[in-house]
Design brief:
It is a single chain. Strand 4 and strand 5 form a beta hairpin. By secondary structure, this protein is of the alpha/beta class. The chain has a five-stranded mixed sheet, covered by helices on one side. It is flat, with a radius of gyration of 24 Å. The chain has four helices and five strands. The two termini are 17 Å apart. Helix 1 runs antiparallel to helix 4, helix 2 packs across helix 3 and helix 3 packs across helix 4.
C-alpha cells in the first residue's frame, strides 16, 4: 500500500517537473498571448517554409506585411557551412558537419526594436556514404530542415522572453496607466530573464518536492501506527 502511494506521488512529481521545465511536444511552438502573426524580412524561401512548418501547430501565422498584432523578424544573415568532420585511412571524408549561422533582429508591432541583433548557430554531423550520392544529398536536405526548425524554436523562445521582459519593464515604469516605450532587449537582458525564470521554476519544484516528502512521511507514520495497533 505504502509503495503504491509513493509511486503515485513520484509520477505526479515527474509530470509536474517536466511541465515546469518547459518540455513540449516535438514540433510544437508555444508563443505568448498577443502574438497572432509573424512578419519575416530578408528570409530565404527555405527559411520561410521552415517557419511555416514550425508554426503549423501554433496560434500564429506568417504574414506578408506587418500588422498591429504581429512582430517582425528581420534576417540579417542566414549562412550554411559544411566541413569535413572525419577522414578515412585513404584521406576521404567519412563524416560531414553542417552548420548554420543565423543573425536577426526583432521589432514589435509598433516598429520599435524589441531584441537587438542576435546570433544563433546550430550544427549536425552525418555520415558521408560515397556509394549513395543521391541518398546523401536527400539526407543533407532533411538535416538542413532539422537545423532550421531547431534555430526557429530557439529564436522564438528568445522572442517570448523579450516580450515578457518588455511587458515587465513597461508595467514597472509606466505611470497613470500610460504605457512607456520599452528599451530594446539585449542579449544580456534575455539571458538575465531566462536565469530568473529558471530560478523561479527550481524554487517551485523544491516546494512541490518538500510538500510531497512531507505527505509521504505522514502516510508512513500513519501506516506504522496502524500496524502496531
Amino acid at each position: 500500500m505504502n509503495r503504491s502511494i509513493v509511486n503515485i506521488f513520484t509520477v505526479v512529481f515527474c509530470a509536474f517537473f517536466i511541465t515546469a521545465c518547459g518540455y513540449k511536444i516535438r514540433g510544437q511552438i508555444v508563443l505568448p498571448d498577443g502574438i497572432e502573426a509573424i512578419h519575416l524580412v530578408g528570409a530565404s524561401n527555405d527559411l520561410s517554409r521552415a517557419f511555416e512548418k514550425a508554426l503549423r501547430f501554433s496560434s500564429a501565422v506568417l504574414v506578408k506585411k506587418a500588422t498591429y498584432t504581429s512582430i517582425t523578424i528581420k534576417i540579417i544573415e542566414d549562412r550554411f557551412r559544411r566541413r569535413t568532420a572525419s577522414l578515412s585511412q585513404r584521406g576521404k571524408s567519412t563524416e560531414f558537419e553542417l552548420t548554420n549561422l543565423l543573425r536577426y533582429e526583432v521589432y514589435d508591432s509598433q516598429g520599435r526594436v524589441l531584441i537587438d541583433q542576435q546570433q544563433l548557430s546550430e550544427a549536425r554531423t552525418y555520415f558521408n556514404d560515397q556509394s549513395q550520392v543521391i541518398a546523401k544529398q536527400n539526407e543533407e536536405k532533411i538535416i538542413r530542415q532539422e537545423i532550421y526548425l531547431a534555430l526557429i524554436s530557439r529564436l522564438l523562445d528568445q522572442v517570448s522572453l523579450g516580450l515578457l521582459a518588455a511587458d515587465t519593464q513597461v508595467n514597472s515604469t509606466g505611470q497613470d496607466g500610460i504605457a512607456t516605450t520599452a528599451n530594446p532587449i539585449s542579449g544580456a537582458s534575455v539571458e538575465s530573464q531566462r536565469q530568473s525564470d529558471t530560478t523561479r521554476i527550481v524554487n517551485e519544484v523544491r516546494k512541490q518536492v518538500d510538500a510531497i516528502s512531507q505527505t509521504v512521511q505522514e502516510l508512513e507514520n500513519s501506516e506504522k501506527i496502524e500496524t502496531k495497533e
